[in-house]
Amino acid sequence: MLSFAVLSFDEMSTTYALIMAGGIGSRFWPMSTPRHPKQFLDILGTGRTLLQQTYDRMSRVTSPENIMVATHSQYKDLVMDQLPDLPEGNILLEPARRNTAPCIAYASIKIHKMKPGSSIVVTPADHLITEEDDFAKQVEVAIKHTMENNHLITLGVKPLRPETGYGYIQFKDGDENEPIKKVKTFTEKPDLDLAREFIESGEFLWNSGIFIWNTNAILNAFEKHQPDLYQNLIEGWDLYNTDGEQSFIDKSYPSSDNISVDYGILERSKSVYVLPVSFGWSDLGTWGSVYQEMKKDDHENAIQSKRILVNESLNNIISLDKGKTAIISGLDGYIVIAEGNRLLICPREEEQQIKSFVNDLKISLGEEDI
Amino acid sequence: MLSFAVLSFDEMSTTYALIMAGGIGSRFWPMSTPRHPKQFLDILGTGRTLLQQTYDRMSRVTSPENIMVATHSQYKDLVMDQLPDLPEGNILLEPARRNTAPCIAYASIKIHKMKPGSSIVVTPADHLITEEDDFAKQVEVAIKHTMENNHLITLGVKPLRPETGYGYIQFKDGDENEPIKKVKTFTEKPDLDLAREFIESGEFLWNSGIFIWNTNAILNAFEKHQPDLYQNLIEGWDLYNTDGEQSFIDKSYPSSDNISVDYGILERSKSVYVLPVSFGWSDLGTWGSVYQEMKKDDHENAIQSKRILVNESLNNIISLDKGKTAIISGLDGYIVIAEGNRLLICPREEEQQIKSFVNDLKISLGEEDI
Q: What does pTM read for this prediction?
């Protein structure tokens, strides 16, 4: 069992959260669109959007003024609308999409200049976590650890099934009383046989994409493993947290390498650790993973709509926006989404193709926003 | 071959058209709704609604002031909008839905009082006729015939396939030079084996639901075969074509028997004749018959939309209203209609159930207008 950890007031003041909310969610068309992507949606009908739920979760591990939201500049208004308590200065605006490494480097430099050596919890804005108490307790264990160690910690979810859509982390056996383990390997999206082997071995965890480290550790890692990216962004050191920050970022950020923190840092560093966790996590990365979390009817249909007649249909994900009325008959294993003026009908097993269907349609219509 | 017939000016002045436009088209939900049923739609994307096309056709066989449109009173505005040249007094408003016999009796009495013995072409408002020249010529042959004979004539379409959704008319062999034949039997919707026998025999025609007769013949037939219905409506003789007509109809019409003219008159009368015709007719009675008339792509999909990506899909009918954008993958033999806030996805072979699906949904929502 994990040891219980509660942060003191002083510890919280040097703990920051970075919510990464810049994705465009094209796998979830037509519910998610470039103007209004997944993290800004209440995709499971809970009453709070995924961004709002992430903010609520982060509010439990640090004080609200220490929560930063990084997003593309086009989503600034959406963030402000959905998080009215967030100070405007806590929104980090990316002028271009450059994956997670530049985003994390930018936020880390900014936070390091405010409070050198602070711990940061880095989290995607669009994941699901159902056990929020467990989440808070387990994250606090990792935060405490980063206050005394220059380790890069990732949260590794104890796997529930041989999922082929996730990344896996293999950890080294070590002291059984030490909850935080050294990482041995990372494996992206294995095939089913390999995923089964991973599960059976007991050495593998799902990579949650939630990271905890202190600013010294992560900035040293950037300097060592991504020196160009680091130099590009550290150059403006004097301008961070001043009126000149945004114009520096607008100028420098677009020339940063487009690279993920997993590939650019974690797979290269020797100080990478994992905390095995369990808190009802899903990356909600595909309709399949959303289906896992949705309530099913007697025919294994996950239906979000009350104005619907469903006849002789099984194993479908069906979602209609409010006000829509539908009759659906004779479908087995489909995704049916009607949202505004947009409609998707697609076999669940083709969910990986949705993104390319959307791209093809954009090209054929000659429109960016569909 | 049919003899050519063109009506003189005098003949046209005693020829009326009755367009029956009171249906609710529930087989075509969600394109057709009780507020805006099939006859008021441009279901094949021609630029004119089915009612407008019917009006255009009738304008070729009689003068516009002799065209009457019978409809339910709730559709008066739709008729006036779609047929701006139609005098308001030519719209016969039914206060209740009572099938074709009461509608035809009402119109026949009204026309008989205006011009006794006039010929009437009775036609549904929601059928398709692609060969309009042929239609006009063949109808004129029948009209000429009714000017000299008290016969009830129905147009019998030469069958193109063993269709099981239509009614069949068997005619008696007679004088080969006489185009109009005496009717032997009526058969509603035969099974496939019987339909094949009908086609092979050469004695059967599809019942088009288009009738031609003079007012003496049809009113005598009503008096004889539907005496209650006849008495109920003839009672107000003095009020027809006066300011008192509508209030008489509003009072008396609802108590008329709910019966079709086929069952109530044609199957009982001994003076029923059929003119074999051929003018690209379809009753557009089901999605299947609409599919027959629609242009298909290389995969036999009939698609009405330009904002759509269709992947690995065959034999579907797909229609989206303007402005909608869709991605459809992996469907074979479905009807997919997205119209306003309404969506239907249903196998083509279940098209006969659409009407009952709609009724079930109405009941479960507790709403009449869906």
A: 0.86
